[in-house]
Amino acid sequence: MAQANPTGTSRPVRPSLRHTLSGTSIIQDHQQYKPQAPINQSIGDVLGSAAEPARGPLTFNANPISPDPEKVTDSGIIHSIFDHQANPLPAGTPQLVATIYYKSSDPIHPHLHPDVSGNVRSGDKLPSPMVPVGSAPTVDIEKIPREPPAPEPEPLDHLYGPFVSQLCLTNFLQILETLPTPYQRMNTSHRCLDQDDQPRVVEVTFSPPPNPNYLTFADLRKHESIWRFEREWNVEVVLQKESVFRRHKRLAVFDMDSTLIQNEVIDEIAKFIGVEKEVSEITERAMNGELDFSQSLQERVGLLRGVPADVFDKLKSVITISPGARELCKSLKALGFKMAVLSGGFQPLAEWLASELGLDYAFANHLEVDPTSQTLTGKLVPTFPIIHAEQKRSLLYSLAAENNIPVSQTIAVGDGANDLPMLHAAGLGVAWRAKSKVQLEAPTRLNGESLTDVLHLLGLDKRDLKELTGELVDDA
After folding, report:
1. Are 358 and 339 in contact (CB under 8 A)?
2. Whether CATH 3.90.1150.10 fits 251-469
3. What pLDDT score was predicted for residue 297?
4. For residues 368 and 250, what is the distance between their CA atoms, to the nearest angstrom?
5. What contacts 237, CB < 8 A, 6 or more positions away?
6. Could you tell me if 326 and 452 are in contact, meaning their C-beta atoms sit under 8 angstroms apart?
7. What pLDDT shows up at residue 395?
8. Domain range list for the chain
9. Could you name the active-site residues (predicted)?
10. Is the pTM of this model over 0.85?
């Protein structure tokens, strides 16, 4: 048996990190566009440093002048546990972009139940069990299978801060390193899109993407590791293929109800005329699959028979435009976008909203009006098509062709099941604060507080938004 450290032999020196590895923030160290550090060394200092013996076996920065030019690439500063020179990537290597949003509207609190809270009072009851929005086709606990739920990951944002923290970003980079199959070394970089200190939105660029023979892009978007990361850190991750068309789009189409506006127009009309219960029953039948969209629309429209045709003018006062919608449309207009609202609602309000937001097109359903009594007949105008799911997708294609815009340069934003076809057809389809089933099936989902979040998906930061709108944009 070999002797361990025989007498007279000095113990080997334990490797230690050099000063250049001791860390400041990973956000600061790897900021993609941070200003170049000043060089305060003379040529004599450089030559003198080169002649000094190595302090240890671990060498991090071969160039004594900081920052090292060989560590900078066109996508940003590389942060990897590997030697960058040992992992050269050929020019034109595909890249993916992950935009990470902290869900500031729904911070996770460690004390979820009264029995573990310091503020518990006598008689307090435990809250009802809930299913996280977007994680299942339904949030109704009674419709979930009777089996033990998967254990939730420990919420970490209450420990490390209600923002995309340094450890959150590091964890995401570690997950990216484990995703490609077979294993590939990745180069990554990132930018903070709202603020450098405690950012809410961070854009991470990485390459090469996972081998599509083992992990397709569609599967990567719904990967279990990324889903768990989102749950742990209370964030949302939007993955896109990096290209000039990701950053430069030219056509944007929007749903109206619960997207550009916070209301559901048919429900507002039902309240106005006192048939709210009947409309709700028809809507529930449609959601249960007993009626398709066209049938449910015609049945609900039938309840409007005899309503004065000017009802839409009276409804304008109760319509609430969604937060960030004006800033979003103003920014896109400044960039030269063509914009349209494609609504399963009604044309008078769609046209009014288009004028309010500066949209170029408005497509919705046309209600028939009795010219004598100036009341609604309870029917749709037969010469105009019903704006259902397939019609929305067709309108997206036709508007793109009319303006000579490739479909890859289009954006679609909606919240309902009838928006899914156009979301999948567009170059970027975003389910905005959508129903749970829609969030599961949509290519991209966002649940922020302001529609200006969509602009970050184009690579625009807070400074860009301020310049486009001419005013301060609230990124809270």
Report:
1. yes
2. no
3. 87
4. 34
5. 98, 99, 100, 101, 172, 226, 229, 230
6. no
7. 98
8. 96-112+130-242, 251-469
9. 255, 257
10. no
